[in-house]
Amino acid sequence: xxxxSTSAADRALExxxxxxxxxxxxxxxxxxxxxxxxxxxxxxYLHHKDKATLFQAxxxxxxxxxxxxxxxxxxxxxxxxxxxxxxxxxxxxxxxxLLHASAHGAELLAACMTLSSHSVCRLxxxxxxxxxxxxxxxxxxxxxxxxGPAGFGQSLASIAGGLKQEMREEADYLTTVDRxxxxxxxxxxx
Length: 190
Known about the structure:
Keywords: DNA-binding, Transcription, Transcription regulation. It holds the Pfam family TetR_N. This is AcrR family transcriptional regulator. The chain folds into two domains: 49 residues, Homeodomain-like (Arc Repressor Mutant, subunit A); 133 residues, Tetracycline Repressor, domain 2 (Orthogonal Bundle). Helix content is 80%, strand content 0%. The chain has nine helices and no strands. The model has no long low-confidence stretch (mean pLDDT 92).
């Protein structure tokens, strides 16, 4: 792929975030995305055959970015509660802001569950595995309440995902994530 086509593809995905946030999935059009990206509709269609495949590509990109950010947020030697909080927020805060800043957040979440359920599953499984891997490397923790590292990862990933969807205000979300991480760290013996 040439540099210019990569650039057009990246611009299209960035524009899609803006357009879907502004209009929701249903009212957004490929023409809207092309205009926002500063590319022709033909150039957009070279990369994505329709709005659904564009949305799926955007979702997949966001999953990759969220998992990479979460993996990079963990700091060896830092207190467990701080690592858990940093990891959860690295994965979810951008998405929380996107969903709650748009009047179309619920519609976008529904579209994601319908059009990109495989990406949602990959995000959930990837984050659960990441947490299990990170917690297994922490010395001296008691994970018996969680049935070991895998249970820990699965439980915390599920709870964190629920918070992202249930909380309405960012300040409340941040406070609740912090509280959750301190509770979980205590339950693990730190």
